[in-house]
């Protein structure tokens, strides 16, 4: 099982490193704009960086949970690929938001779509597993029989 989950593990480690990068950017912005903790208000440039990091942190638990659920119940390869796409989208979101509030929108929509794909994979995987384990019905096999 562990060898099969290496992709999910790698994406998880990258996700944690990305979160650390975002946090460091807030620390650098605090120094640059002289905004001492616990204050969260300051120049607009600081506020955008702070909000970008906070928004990414808010979605992090959802992403990790759905990444692993999708990987375990649907496909580890596809889930890992979607995870990488999501992380790329969040990085672009952070950089875009740091530049301008408008710059966050396209990457935000992209990463939201990827997250919904992972949610869909998770739901399908859980339903198929539930039916196979508890109802003793293999829906994929039944579908294949119906089509061919």
Q: Which spans of ≥5 residues are poorly predicted at pLDDT below 50? A: none
**Overall geometric form:** elongated
User: What are the secondary-structure elements, in order, as H or E?
Assistant: HHHHH
Please give the alpha-carbon distance between the first and last residues: 33 Å
* Helix content range: over 70%
The biggest beta sheet reads: none
Mean pLDDT: 95
Secondary-structure-based class equals mainly alpha
Oligomeric nature of the chains: single chain
Count, helices = 5
Percentage of residues in DSSP E strands: under 5%
Q: What's the β-strand tally?
A: 0
Rg (C-alpha, Å) = 19 Å
Report on the structure:
Helices cover 82% and strands 0% of the residues. Helix 1 (6-33) runs antiparallel to helix 2, helix 2 (44-73) runs antiparallel to helix 3 (76-99) and helix 3 runs antiparallel to helix 4. It is elongated and about 65 Å long. By secondary structure, it is an all-alpha fold. The longest helix is centred in the middle third of the chain and has 30 residues, at 44-73.
Structural key phrases:
mainly alpha; 148 residues; elongated; single chain
């Amino acid at each position: 099982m562990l060898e099969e989950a290496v992709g999910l593990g790698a994406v998880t480690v990258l996700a944690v490193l990305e979160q650390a990068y975002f946090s460091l950017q807030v620390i650098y912005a605090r120094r640059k704009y002289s905004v001492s903790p616990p204050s969260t208000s300051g120049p607009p440039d600081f506020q955008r960086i702070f909000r970008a990091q906070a928004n990414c942190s808010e979605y992090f638990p959802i992403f990790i949970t759905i990444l692993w659920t999708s990987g375990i119940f649907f496909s580890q390869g596809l889930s890992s690929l979607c995870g990488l796409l999501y992380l790329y989208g969040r990085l672009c979101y952070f950089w875009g938001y740091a530049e301008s509030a408008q710059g966050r929108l396209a990457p935000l929509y992209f990463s939201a779509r990827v997250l919904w794909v992972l949610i869909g994979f998770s739901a399908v995987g859980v339903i198929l597993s539930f039916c196979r384990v508890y109802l003793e019905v293999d829906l994929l096999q039944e579908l294949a029989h119906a089509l061919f």
